[in-house]
Design a protein that fits this description.
The chain is α/β, with parallel strands linked by helices. The protein has two domains: 3-119 and 194-258, Rossmann fold (3-Layer(aba) Sandwich), CATH 3.40.50.1820; 123-186, no CATH class. The protein is built from eleven helices and eight strands. The chain has an eight-stranded mixed β-sheet, sandwiched between helices. The protein is globular.
Length: 259
């Protein structure tokens, strides 16, 4: 991240800007930084002006307590100003929930695209999210960052053997470093239900994309986003999972943002 801007509460945000065309801000999901979506940004830069940033509490960006989802919406407002006063948004996973909330807040966002925002599609899943929130809060309050990361990885469905292997890997320290931001994404998800009232109020076109090889519930959640938005479109990318290939996703997004 080679540039900096300041959010409304004084938090410094690190970002990069590249390309030409309609402005697009890429919003990463949980346990990720702007670097996670940078490969996608590089591919979009041929047709769009792409801003990739580290969300607060991650990477080269700062953080300011207390956290509130509204502060992250203000972060996007600051980046939209940098982009020229208007920008499309793309959100990956829980970053999609933030992108949708920002667009619904009245920011100048002409188009929104999301990839597999992990909303709960049944009451059992909603109860599971509530348990996750309770245990995550407890782990972070006690300073047990490693336990918080484990909770998140279990929530994603990662096998216990893989979690323990990850804990012994060189990447674990970096995961623990941004573990407090798991609470931020949990707050953005707001209990996990599809925010139908929020989506129904969106005037901007919404593209909701899912992978054909992703779990059924993720595909259902993605379709629910498209159906709840007045100008929503659902798109399925065959052969893709939650870790989508940027080379497959980029042309779909470029076409949508340039329309």
């Amino acid at each position: 991240m080679d540039k900096k801007t300041i959010s409304r509460d004084g938090t410094e945000l690190a970002y990069t800007r590249a390309g030409q065309g309609p402005a697009v801000i890429l919003v990463s999901g949980a346990m990720s930084t702007g670097g996670t979506v940078a490969p996608l940004g590089g591919l979009l830069a041929g047709r769009c002006t792409v801003l990739t940033y580290d969300r607060r509490g991650r990477g080269a960006s700062g953080d300011t307590a207390p956290y509130a989802v509204e502060r992250e919406v203000e972060d996007l407002a600051a980046l939209i100003e940098v982009a020229g006063g208007e920008a499309c948004l793309y959100g990956a996973s829980s970053g999609g929930a933030l992108a949708l909330r920002a667009a619904a807040s009245g920011l100048p966002v002409p188009r929104v695209a999301v990839y597999e925002t992990p909303y709960a599609v049944d009451e059992e899943a909603v109860r599971g999210r509530a348990t996750y929130t309770e245990r995550l809060t407890e782990a972070l309050d006690r300073g047990r960052r490693g336990d918080a990361v484990e909770l998140f990885l279990r929530l994603t469905g990662l096998a216990e053997e893989m979690i323990q292997r990850a804990r012994q890997s060189p990447m674990w320290a970096g995961m623990e470093a941004i573990a407090p931001t798991l609470a931020y994404d949990d707050a953005v998800m707001a209990g996990g239900r599809v925010p139908e009232a929020l989506l129904a109020a969106l005037g901007a076109p919404v593209l909701a994309v899912a992978g054909g090889d992703s779990p059924l519930w993720l595909r259902e959640a993605t379709r629910a986003v498209a159906e709840a938005a007045p100008h929503g479109t659902y798109r399925l990318l065959e052969g893709q999972t939650h870790v989508v290939d940027p080379n497959v996703l980029a042309p779909v997004l470029a076409e949508f943002f340039a329309a």
